[in-house]
Specification:
Radius of gyration: 18 Å
Oligomer: single chain
Order of helices and strands: HHHHEHEHEEHEEE
Number of strands: 7
Largest sheet: 7 strands, mixed
Helix content: 25-40%
Length: 188
């Protein structure tokens, strides 16, 4: 990105675009990535293969699952269609991904998309908590999970293992990213 920035900037300046285009581009990027500077979590989207692997971790009985930072809701849409007996909740703080998730999930009766900060939302009523965040908030998430999740609940971290904590299970996903789902039982 850094290497290509100056040549691309010079090329763009040579196009003679109106100045409002730059503000529009900035605004669109802001609506997609929102406060990544504060959350330290960029927009990550789960692959179809990761969704299928996560569906395999759902127990046979109906449960409630939450996706912390659900992005565009793709993971929740796939899970909701595969498991109509379960209830799925997704949190997203970036306006444009939230709007996309809300619109694309509005016809799925077992999905609820919420706008805002999941840190204030209790985790005690969920049998499975999914997080595709970044390494930065993982210690804080672990503390929240240990304080709020029940003994039989499962915390699944997509791609980012907790430092110095051995997962109960690791699921390798056959996708282009070589995704790993790290499974923890925080209350044990």
């Amino acid at each position: 990105i850094h290497l290509g920035f100056m040549p691309l900037a010079m090329l763009a300046l040579g196009l003679g675009l109106p100045s409002w285009i730059w503000l529009a581009g900035f605004t669109i990027l802001l609506l997609i990535f929102w406060r990544t500077d504060r959350s330290r979590v960029p927009l990550y989207l789960s692959s179809v293969a990761a969704s299928e692997a996560l569906a395999g971790l759902l127990p046979a009985e109906p449960i409630a699952m939450i996706d912390l930072g659900c992005g565009d809701g793709g993971l929740l849409r796939r899970l909701a269609r595969a498991r109509p007996d379960c209830r799925f909740v997704g949190f997203e703080h970036a306006p444009l991904p939230w709007a996309w998730a809300w619109l694309s999930c509005r016809n799925l009766p077992n999905v609820e998309i919420r706008f805002g900060d999941f840190w204030t939302h209790p985790l005690g009523s969920y049998a499975l908590v999914h997080a595709f965040l970044s390494p930065a908030p993982m210690p804080q998430l672990w503390a929240k999970a240990r304080a709020q999740m029940t003994s039989n609940a499962l915390l699944v971290s997509n791609s980012f293992a907790l430092t110095d904590i051995e997962p109960q299970r690791t699921v390798e996903v056959a996708d282009g990213r070589q995704t790993h789902l790290y499974c923890y039982r925080p209350a044990n």
